[in-house]
Amino acid sequence: MGIGDKIGNAAEHAGGKAKEAAGKATDNEKLEREGQADQLKADANKVGEDVKDQFKRND
Fold first, then answer.
1. How far is CA 51 from CA 7, 18, 23, 30, 56, in A?
2. Which pLDDT belongs to residue 24?
3. What is the DSSP string of 1-52?
4. How far apart (Å, rounded) are the C-alpha atoms in residues 46 and 17?
5. I need a surface site. Which of 16, 24, 49, 57 has the fewest CB within 10 A?
6. Is the pTM of this model over 0.85?
7. ∠ CA(13), CA(58), CA(48), 5° rounding?
8. Do residues 36 and 23 make contact, with C-beta atoms less than 8 angstroms apart?
9. Does 57 score more than 70 pLDDT?
């Protein structure tokens, strides 16, 4: 995984955490769920990149 991908995934995850916290603070369930979804997406992207890295190492 390139450094740009790692930074992008970390930023997306952090943004999701912030969105989730804002949703909790304002009692906005939709915003809270969006934040959770953003975090899941970032985590899934990281897993996908990690799998690609493993295949590259094994070649």
1. 17, 27, 32, 32, 9
2. 98
3. --HHHHHHHHHHHHHHHHHHHHHHHTT-HHHHHHHHHHHHHHHHHHHHHHHH
4. 16
5. 57
6. no
7. 20
8. no
9. yes
